[in-house]
Design brief:
Number of helices: 17
Number of strands: 18
Strand order of the largest sheet: 8-9-10-1-11-16-12-15-13-14
Helix content: 25-40%
Length: 511
C-alpha cells in the first residue's frame, strides 16, 4: 500500500476517534514542543553550514547585533542598541550591557570584535564568505562600542548584520574552535542547546537569564525537542499520532489531507526561497565530460523554453507559489522581472537544440537534492524537448561537493538567501566567480562588484538590473518558481509563519 493510501486510512481512523484530542494536548501548555526538520546539520556553528536548519537554530540559540522584524522588515536593536554611519565605510554600534552567554560569560565588545574578524578572515574559510567579505576590520572602541570598517561602501550592511552574523563568546570559541563549538554551541539567544545527538536530535531549553527588552521576547515554551526526519511519511504519521507537534516541507497533496484532521492546522506560505536550474556554461566540468552542450547559448535557451514553470508552481508547489523570471525573490532590493523571458514552448526548445547541433537531443545527469516530485516533472518536460535527463538525488552536502568539484553539468538548486531581503544575498553568491559560479561572466562580475559598493539607491538598482538582464539573455540559469512551505502543526499550538522561512518558536505558545 502506497503512503498516500496509508495516510488516507490513518486520517480516516483519526477523524473517527479524534485521536486523543483532549489528553494529548493537556500537558503541553508551557512545556515541550516536538518538532521535525528535514536535514541533518553538519555543524551547529552557523558560519560553517549552509542549511536552512542552521538559520532556524541561529535565531533560537544565538543573537545578532540587529533584529529584523519578520512582519514589517524594520531593523530593531538586539545586541546593539543603536548604530550610525560615521562615513561611507565606518559603521559605529553601541552594544547592550547586562547580557550574558549561556555559559555565564558576560557579553561585551570583545566578543563582537573577535567573531566578526574571525568570520571576515579568508583563512578561516567560512561557508558564507560572500556574506562577510565586505568587512575589512572590526575595532573595539570601548567595552560596549565597536566600529565596523568596510573595504568599500557596503549599502546592505544593516540587513546582513540582522541575518548573517550571529555573535559567539570569544573565550569559549577560541578555546574549542569551530569543531568543538559545532557540537556544543554557546550563544546569548532565548534558548540554550542542552543536548545534541548528531543526526537524530537537538534539545533546546529556554534560557532563564535571557535579557529583558529583546524584540524576540522571553519564550513561553520551555523546551524544544528537535528531531531530524527527512522522510515525509514519517513526519506526517508522527504528526497525526501525536509524536510531533510541528513539521514543515510536507508536499501540497499530503498537507491537504492532513488539514482534514481535527487536531492539525496547515498553513501554506510563500517563502523567500526560489528554485532554479544552473547549467555549466563556463565548462567548469570539462575534465569530467568531453562534451558539454551547455556552453552553447541556444542549448541554454532551449532548456528555458522546455520547462513549464507556472504549471509546476500551481500544481505541485501549490499555495502562493509564483513563477519567476529572474534568479531572485521579488521583494529583495534590486530584484526585477524586466528581463528576457522564455515562455513554455517545447517546439521552440526542439528547434533551438537542432540549431545548436543536437537534432536528436542529448543525455545528461541531472543532480537534485530535494522535492523529488518537482524534479521528476522537470525531467518529463525536458524529455518532450529531446533532453534525456537522468535524475540523481543526493544529500545537499554531497551534491554541493560534486558541483563545486566540476563534476556536474546540470543541477537543480534552491536558495533562500538566508532570509536576507537584498539581492546581493543570492546573486553575489552564484555569480561573483565563486566556487558555485558556473557562468563566470566577466561583465556580470563587474556590475555586481560596482553594485556592492554603490550607496546611491537608484544607481545600485540600475546596476543589478543590468546584471540580471545579462544573466537572462545569456540563459545561464532556468529561473523556476518561489517556494511554498506547508507548515503542519497541532491545532493547540499558537504559531505564525513568516515569509522569511524562519520559524520562531520563541514567539509560539500553547493555547
Amino acid at each position: 500500500m502506497g503512503f498516500r493510501n496509508c495516510l488516507v486510512l490513518v486520517l480516516a481512523l483519526a477523524l473517527m476517534t479524534g485521536f486523543a484530542a483532549g489528553p494529548a494536548a493537556a500537558g503541553k501548555k508551557g512545556g515541550t514542543i516536538n518538532i521535525a526538520l528535514e536535514k541533518e546539520l553538519e555543524t551547529l556553528d552557523w558560519y560553517f553550514n549552509t542549511a536552512r536548519e542552521g538559520i532556524v537554530l541561529s535565531q533560537h540559540a544565538y543573537d545578532f547585533l540587529i533584529y529584523r522584524d519578520p512582519v514589517t522588515f524594520e531593523h530593531k536593536p538586539l545586541l546593539a542598541t543603536s548604530w550610525k554611519w560615521l562615513s561611507d565605510t565606518v559603521l559605529e554600534l553601541e552594544l547592550r550591557q547586562g547580557v550574558v552567554f549561556h555559559n555565564g560569560a558576560k557579553f561585551s565588545a570583545d566578543d563582537v570584535v573577535y567573531i566578526l574578524n574571525y568570520a571576515a578572515n579568508p583563512d578561516n574559510k567560512v561557508k558564507y564568505w560572500t556574506y562577510v567579505n565586505w568587512i575589512k576590520e572590526v575595532k573595539k572602541m570601548g567595552d560596549y562600542k565597536v566600529q565596523i570598517v568596510t573595504h568599500k561602501p557596503f549599502p546592505p550592511a544593516i540587513e546582513f548584520l540582522s541575518c548573517a552574523m550571529p555573535i559567539y563568546p570569544k573565550d569559549y570559541y577560541a578555546q574549542v574552535g569551530s569543531k568543538g563549538f559545532g557540537v556544543k554551541p554557546i550563544g546569548t539567544g532565548p534558548y540554550k542547546v542542552a543536548e545534541v545527538e548528531p543526526g537524530k536530535k537537538i534539545v533546546l531549553e529556554a534560557f532563564d537569564q535571557y535579557f529583558a527588552g529583546s524584540p524576540k521576547g522571553k519564550p513561553a515554551i520551555k523546551r524544544i525537542v528537535w528531531r531530524t526526519i527527512a522522510e515525509v511519511n514519517t513526519k506526517a504519521a508522527e504528526l497525526m499520532t501525536g509524536g510531533l507537534d510541528w513539521c514543515w516541507l510536507i508536499p501540497a497533496d499530503q498537507a491537504a489531507k492532513l488539514a482534514q484532521a481535527p487536531n492539525i492546522k496547515v498553513v501554506e506560505g510563500e517563502t523567500m526561497r526560489v528554485g532554479f536550474l544552473f547549467m555549466d556554461a563556463a565548462n567548469i566540468s570539462k575534465d569530467a565530460f568531453p562534451d558539454n552542450p551547455f556552453t552553447k547559448l541556444k542549448v541554454r535557451q532551449a532548456m528555458n523554453y522546455a520547462i513549464d514553470a507556472p504549471t509546476i508552481a500551481k500544481t505541485l508547489a501549490g499555495g502562493q507559489s509564483k513563477p519567476i523570471d529572474s534568479i531572485c525573490y521579488p521583494t529583495q532590493f534590486g530584484c526585477t522581472g524586466d528581463v528576457a523571458k522564455y515562455p513554455y514552448d517545447p517546439a521552440k526548445a526542439k528547434q533551438l537544440l537542432a540549431e545548436a547541433g543536437y537534432p536528436d537531443g542529448f543525455e545528461v545527469d541531472f543532480y537534485v537534492y530535494r522535492d523529488r516530485s518537482y524534479s521528476e516533472a522537470i525531467v518529463g518536460y525536458l524529455a518532450k524537448a529531446g533532453v534525456k535527463a537522468k535524475l540523481i538525488q543526493l544529500q545537499y552536502s554531497a551534491m554541493r561537493e560534486k558541483f563545486q568539484g566540476g563534476k556536474v553539468q546540470l543541477a537543480f538548486w534552491t536558495w533562500g538567501s538566508n532570509s536576507i531581503n537584498d539581492i546581493s544575498a543570492i546573486i553575489d553568491y552564484w555569480f561573483m566567480h565563486t566556487s558555485d559560479d558556473v557562468a563566470r561572466d566577466p561583465k556580470v562580475l563587474e556590475l555586481l562588484t560596482a553594485a556592492g559598493g554603490e550607496m546611491n539607491v537608484e544607481k545600485r538598482k540600475a546596476l543589478y538590473k543590468e546584471a540580471l538582464q545579462i544573466i537572462a539573455s545569456q540563459a545561464y540559469t532556468v529561473p523556476l518558481f518561489t517556494w511554498v512551505s506547508n507548515y503542519c502543526f497541532s491545532s493547540e499550538l499558537d504559531f505564525t509563519p513568516h515569509s522569511d522561512e524562519t520559524p520562531r518558536f520563541f514567539s509560539a505558545k500553547w493555547k
